[in-house]
Amino acid sequence: MICKKIVELLPRFIENDFSKEEYAEIARHLEECERCKKEYEAMKKLIDRLETMPLLNVPKSFKESVMKSLKDLKDKNDG
Ligand SMILES: [Zn+2]
After folding, report:
1. CATH number for region 3-78
2. Helix (H, G, I), strand (E, B) or coil at 18
3. Ligand 1 centre distance from Cα of residue 49 (Å)
4. Gap from CA of 3 to ligand 1 centroid (Å)
């Protein structure tokens, strides 16, 4: 699997929205790839923070739109 693909799958990976096999494949890539691992950790931190917001049950669509704007931003920065 290539890094670009992995990064796209990370939000779903964090939500644990994969089969065992797919999950293992991504997890293995993260073990081997420092860049994707950093991406994963940053994303996870953000999502964890959203989920622990008090008095606010963040809907999944909101999280998805956050992830999307992060990705758009990153794409721009990568130029
Ligand atoms: Zn990678």
Report:
1. 1.10.10
2. coil
3. 24
4. 4
Domain chopping of the chain, boundaries: 3-78
Q: Which candidate, 41, 37, 47, places its Cα nearest to that of 15?
A: 47
For residue 42, give both structure tokens.
């940053």
What pTM was estimated for this model as a whole?
0.61
How many CB atoms are located within 10 Å of the residue 37 CB?
14
The string of pLDDT tens digits covering residues 13-51 is 998 889 999 999 999 999 999 999 999 999 999 888 877
Please identify every residue whose CB atom is under 5 Å from ligand 1, which is an ion: 3, 33, 36
Residue with tokens 């923070």: 49
Contacts of 44 by beta carbon, 8 Å cutoff, 6+ apart: 14
